[in-house]
Amino acid sequence: MNPITLIIIYFTILMGPLVTMLSSNLFIMWIGLEMNLLALVPLMTNKPTTRSTEAATKYFLTQATASMILLFSILINFKQLGSWTFQPETSNIIMTMTFISLAIKLGLAPFHSWLPEVAQGVTLTVNLILLTWQKIAPLSIMSQFYELMNPNLLILSATVSVLIGAWNGLNQTQMRKIMAYSSIAHMGWMISILSYNPSLMILNLLIYITMTISMFVILRAHSFTSITSVSLMWNKMPMATPMMSLILLSTGGLPPLTGFLPKWVIITELTKNSNLMLATVLAMTALINLFFYTRLIYSTSLTTFPTNNNSKMYTHHQPHKMNNIMPPLMITSTMLLPLSPLLL
I want to staple 56 with a disulfide (CB 3.0 to 4.6 A). Which of 18, 44, 128, 304 is the partner? Predict the structure, then answer.
């Protein structure tokens, strides 16, 4: 792709969520979401293959449907109230339509089925954008109007999301699908706390983005796309093996790593608000998530797979330059729990 075109596309992807977050006008927020959508599709088809074309088509059709529902709800609200923002007088049907459209964009259950398929068909770089940056704009709209949304609908979607993200991640062997189902489960955690404490949702989002970026930096180093390829990391990137293990444990929420912090505070907040059933479901599904993360660690660190080569270590043949952002990402992904009183 032409470098100038690439710069324009990345700039549009960068500006989309910023336009949405900095605006109080619903129509401008919708424009920010469309900037994100239209800029990501060319990136998906940058290296055209059958899988990437299929993934781009699924992504465009799904997101266009969500945008149509959102725009429809915005126009109905403007016709009824004469305002380009949601008011306390906005009907429940309009807010339900808005939540459905944003849930489709986030990949929340039961509107999640497009996300693993799209994630499997695109490159790791596009996957990283899809699972991190693209979540910011819809979540920012939800955090602005969460008081007008039906809390029971939020809790139901969060419960189904964490269950589907945990159970469907168990039988996956492709890293991109595993990270997609992990994203669905994490979105469920964020939505579960939205109606009680939106600041905890933002904290969870920041920590999730940090851990996901750390994971994809390691995966991109040698294009690790499946558990089989990850199992050969021990003789290609020896130093990355313990780093990836720690990031996976942190993503699973094992104390005393950073990933335990959002799960801890979310369960505490739910307990304070007498929502013991949802807190129990979240804690149980966190164990299932931790199981398939541990399975990855077993494949990466605790087994030595046979190779057809005489030389077991390839670091002296293929020198690797770890990304400069990896050390700070590693620290923030694993060692922020002692700062939890300051962060909260």
Answer: 44
Tokens at 239, concatenated: 């130093």
DSSP annotation of 196 reads T
Q: Give the separation between CA 319 and CA 101, rounded to whole angstroms.
A: 46
Going from the C-alpha of 216 to that of each of 108, 208, 249, 257, 270, the distances in angstroms are 21, 12, 15, 18, 31
Over the range 304-320, which residues count as b (16 or more CB within 10 Å of their CB) and which as e? Answer: eeeeeeeeeebeeeeee
pTM: 0.91
- Asked whether 188 and 204 are in contact (CB, 8 A), the reply is no
User: Could you identify the residue written with the tokens 């239209």?
Assistant: 38
What's the rounded Cα separation, in Å, for the pair 302 and 133?
A: 33
**For the chain, which residues make up each domain, given as ranges?**
1-149, 150-305+320-344
C-beta of residue 102 within 8 angstroms of C-beta of residue 66: yes
Q: How far apart are CA 74 and CA 322, in angstroms?
A: 46
Per-residue pLDDT of the chain (344 residues; tens, 9 = 90+): 788 999 999 999 999 999 999 998 999 999 999 999 999 999 999 888 899 999 999 999 999 999 999 999 999 999 999 889 999 998 999 999 999 999 999 999 889 999 999 999 999 999 999 999 999 999 999 999 999 999 999 999 999 999 999 999 888 888 899 999 999 999 999 999 999 999 999 999 999 999 999 999 888 887 788 888 887 777 777 777 888 889 999 999 888 899 999 999 999 999 999 899 999 999 999 999 888 888 888 877 766 555 555 445 444 444 455 567 788 888 888 888 888 877 66
C-alpha torsion sign, points 73, 79, 84, 87: negative
Paired tokens of 276: 């013991």
| Distance, CA of 68 to CA of 30 (rounded, Å) | 10
Q: Are 213 and 133 in contact (CB under 8 A)?
A: no
Angstrom distance (rounded) from CA 223 to CA 241: 15
